[in-house]
Specification:
The protein folds into two domains: about 170 residues, Alpha-Beta Complex (Quinone Oxidoreductase, Chain A, domain 1), CATH 3.90.180.10; about 140 residues, Rossmann fold (3-Layer(aba) Sandwich). It contains ten helices and 17 strands. By secondary structure, the chain is of the alpha/beta class.
């Protein structure tokens, strides 16, 4: 078996292409040929050195692949297209002392190696078959959709409620679409007018800029009230942590959701005064439901532009995207490995 190509970020602003031999005796039974990888802001943050991690690390948190070998699994025969799971339970051998300062789960491409490589070995529990009716581009955002579903569920029944969503990035737009599907009224808030303009092309019509008139804008959207709840999208560039507290009604729920650990300190004074319930969501598991929401267009990615990145253009991508975190939100960056 020939050597595998593996791309690694070996330090801040340093990307390296390596080759390594296939393992003689793999620890996991299913060999997956990685076909497409969705590169996101987290990958760029790691490249810049802004996000704490252990170098070297293989980037790429979201990926689609194909089962490469004949298997005994009826669910994963050779040629099955699969979504590789980003969030996985931290493995315990039963013999090593547990470090309780570490997270209970690992994040591929962030706390352990990701998927920007030719092949990976995986357990069946780390994969979900992708339906034939779903394109690779849609399947690659399934983690976002599953995360949005978990965040919305934290708010309880949403029908008829006006929910503030702070952050008009991919995650925030898909969350707003899901709220519309559930017959809620999302109010999408962001500091960047161009993001809000794009969100309106995605069917999210109630948008409010984060400026000196923010509270008046929310009151106008709600008929003179504050929001019945709020979802703050971690990683949506440039939005203040205090916004969900400011725009939420007393005794409502605020959900912080996203994939990037938010290392900045922020005050809870306003949340305490308003007696808000805070919830935190940072992992996604319900991929079959996410696939169904994408297939039925309850969440619709049609307005997003899939930008294909050749493997020989990876350094240029990181140098461009990595230096400009406020990039065009309408672009979804996909590396094709075959």
């Amino acid at each position: 078996m020939s050597d595998w190509k593996v791309w690694k970020i070996v330090g801040p602003k340093a990307l390296s292409l390596n080759t390594q031999p296939a393992p003689a005796i793999p620890e996991k039974p299913l060999r997956v040929r990685v076909t497409k990888v969705f590169l996101s802001g987290v990958d760029a943050s790691i490249w810049r050195g802004d996000l704490k991690t252990r170098y070297p690390i293989v980037p790429g948190r979201f990926a689609i692949g194909i089962i490469a070998d004949e298997t005994e699994s009826q669910l994963f025969p050779k040629g099955t297209r699969v979504l590789l799971h980003t969030f996985r339970p931290r493995p315990y051998t039963g013999t090593e002392k547990i470090d309780f300062s570490e997270d209970e789960s690992v994040v591929c491409g962030q706390t352990q190696d990701g998927f920007l490589r030719d092949f990976v070995y995986a357990d069946a529990c780390d994969l979900t078959p992708v339906p034939d009716v779903l394109s690779d581009e849609k399947a690659l955002v399934a983690h976002y959709v599953a995360l949005a579903k978990s965040a919305v569920e934290c708010l309880g029944p949403c029908k008829g409620k006006q929910i503030a969503v702070i952050g008009a990035n991919v995650m925030g737009i898909l969350t707003s679409q899901l709220l519309l599907y559930l017959q809620a009224s999302p109010i999408l808030i962001d500091t960047d007018p161009s993001r809000l303009a794009f969100a309106r092309t995605c069917g999210v019509y109630c948008t409010v800029p984060d400026d000196e008139n923010l509270l008046n804008g929310v009151a106008n959207a709600t008929g003179g009230r504050l929001a019945s709840g709020a979802i703050y999208v971690i990683g949506a560039y440039g939005n203040d942590h205090q916004i969900p507290f400011a725009v939420s009604a007393e005794k409502s729920t605020t959900v912080f959701c996203g994939f990037v650990p938010d290392n900045e300190k922020f005050s809870l004074d306003l949340a305490l005064r308003k007696q808000l319930t805070l919830r935190f969501v940072h992992s996604a598991t319900e991929f079959e439901t996410a696939f169904n929401l994408l297939f039925t267009r309850a969440v619709d990615t049609g307005a997003f532009k899939a930008k294909t990145i050749p493997t020989d253009g990876l350094e240029t991508f990181f140098a461009t995207y990595g230096e400009h975190p406020e990039h065009d939100v309408s672009e979804v960056n996909i590396v094709s490995l075959i």
